[in-house]
Specification:
The chain is an alpha+beta fold. It is 38% helix and 21% strand. The chain is built from three helices and four strands; from the N terminus they run αααββββ. A four-stranded antiparallel sheet has the order 1-2-3-4. About 5% of the residues have low confidence.
């Protein structure tokens, strides 16, 4: 009986150690929005001509039909198939120059 209790506790502890909490959708959106706002703050031209931010497509719209696209980083091979927080987003590309023509 004592062995069963020890095994049960060991299994429970192992399960707890391997479990990662996933972020709620609102927390994930907040983290993604923070990343996008930091990008805008770092690029004055984008900030000056900002039109909108689309969290669904991870896109910032600015200037004359200009877009900045972000993508979600790939999950680590070690975390593949396991629950846990989504990787961060990162800058992918822009279809317009991100520096003002007047800047040197």
């Amino acid at each position: 009986m004592k062995i069963i209790k020890i095994l049960t506790v060991a299994i429970a502890l192992t399960t707890v150690l391997n479990t990662h909490a996933a972020l709620s959708p609102s927390s994930l959106n907040t983290r993604d929005l923070t990343t996008m706002v930091r990008f805008i703050e770092d690029h004055p031209l984008v900030a000056e001509t900002l039109k909108s931010i689309d969290l669904m497509s991870l896109t910032i719209f600015f200037g004359d039909n200009c877009e900045v696209l972000f993508e979600r980083e790939q999950a680590s091979f070690l975390s593949f198939g396991r629950p846990g927080p989504q990787p961060n987003i990162k800058f992918k590309m822009s279809n317009c120059d991100l520096k003002d023509v007047d800047e040197n």
